[in-house]
Design goal:
With 358 residues, the protein is of the alpha/beta class. Helices cover 34% and strands 23% of the residues. Bound molecules: (2R,3S,4s,5R,6S)-2,3,4,5,6-pentahydroxycyclohexanone. The site of (2R,3S,4s,5R,6S)-2,3,4,5,6-pentahydroxycyclohexanone has 5 residues, from α7.
Amino acid sequence: MPPPTPPAEPFPVPPHGSSSVPLGVAVLGAGKMGADHIRRLDTVIGGARVAAVADPDEARAKSLAAGIDGCATFTDPVAALEAPGVDAVLIASPGPAHEAALLAALERDLPVLCEKPMVPDAEAALRVVEAEVGLGHRRISVGFMRRFDAEHQRLKALLAAGELGAPRLLHCRHRNVSVHPYFTEAMLITDSVAHEVDAARWLLGQEITAVQVFRPTAQLPGRTGIPDPQLVILETDGGVVVDVEILANGGFGYQVATEAVCERGTARIGEPQGLTTSTAGRWGGEITQDYLVRFADAYDREVRAWVAATRRGETTGASSWDGYAVAAICAAGVEAQRTGHRVPIQLAPAPAAFVNGV
Ligand code: ISE
């Protein structure tokens, strides 16, 4: 059964902003991701301008806003939503701050692109879904940017075309170079594997029904105390098994790859390409060191699509329901990680507005 996504009707999106004036975006959170989105909106994407930046670190907000014409800065995210010229919101603050920001944006009927995770837990995610449903039209896009990565899009199209037959397995590798000192073991699931959870649902058009987490007993000495690597097994309602190798502190490079094993063949994405050198009896290439570099095109395409869709009065990408589903599946994943058990997943019934859409 395909995961429910909202149909165009009866859950439409009224146009927002003017078609001739750039979309004024308030960026909430000016950390690594927020700073990259500010740069992108300011210098890469047409049709939008950064109208406001909010961050508890005022000096950081000011330094990022400096040089952007008419860009106001705030320490209070809600004040940024009220700033003159703000038509839409990009939330890039830490996950625990997302619920309040999303609800404040919905209260003001502002379109939102919210970085993943939409919110860190399933109950909060349902509150957000309910608030959007109560509004009567879609306003939220969740930043699962793999949906905008060219290779992921090609793999999805290939699977949908049926040339390789039905998918049986997805092998996913997600290797981080390192993680921040505040990164917890649970965040391996909620922050990193969350991408594969969304990508698997989206690539296969199936829902995740159970999760289990394995740790090799011979562990790498995780540099921040996180046992590395871990293997997450997801089962879907279409009978596909998805395995995700997750590595927090690999140290050697950032690698994200997926291989689909289907009835009549396999398809692989995320293999290193680009420049290779041959010298002194060896050949080799480079491994990307950061997700902002590895997925730079996907982030550009995602934000460009969001700006264009918002100006047309449409939404794009993952919905708040997808944000809820990923939060609920990841919560089960954290329980599986903690207990070592296989944890079945039962999602809440989807509100009517999110049923039967694709
Ligand atoms: C980070 O927040 C991301 O979103 C990256 O895409 C992911 O690879 C990384 O593991 C996360 O921590």
